[in-house]
Amino acid sequence: MAQAMRPNTVGSLFATDHKPHPLQHTLLAVTLVLGVTAFVSAMFHSLHLLSSWAGLVGILTGGAGQFISETTRERFGLILGLGAAGVGLLLGMAHGGLFGGVIG
């Protein structure tokens, strides 16, 4: 009956290995913040510089985080941040791009 006392983490989406991962969690937080920033600022046409740059950097940090992530929890958050950063980047590019109005 010892197995009845253990929590079932095998099927959990947010399963963790109960070890600290400071670098992975930092990349996760940065990716989520940049993704939300890019997504929200992409809704405003005049903020295309912010949305496109935040989206680009968010995609780069999210890719690095995916490369070194160790748990499903980290990967799940990174995919959400990457998706938001990607949408923000693409809408920012459609509204003027990375250098729109600054060069030329």
TrEMBL record:
The answer to whether keyword Membrane applies is yes
Q: Which domain of life is it from?
A: Bacteria
Question: What keywords is this UniProt entry annotated with?
Answer: Membrane, Transmembrane, Transmembrane helix
| Transmembrane portions of the chain | 26-44, 50-69, 76-103
Indicate what this protein is called per its UniProt record: Uncharacterized protein
Read off the lineage from the record. Bacteria, Bacillati, Actinomycetota, Actinomycetes, Kitasatosporales
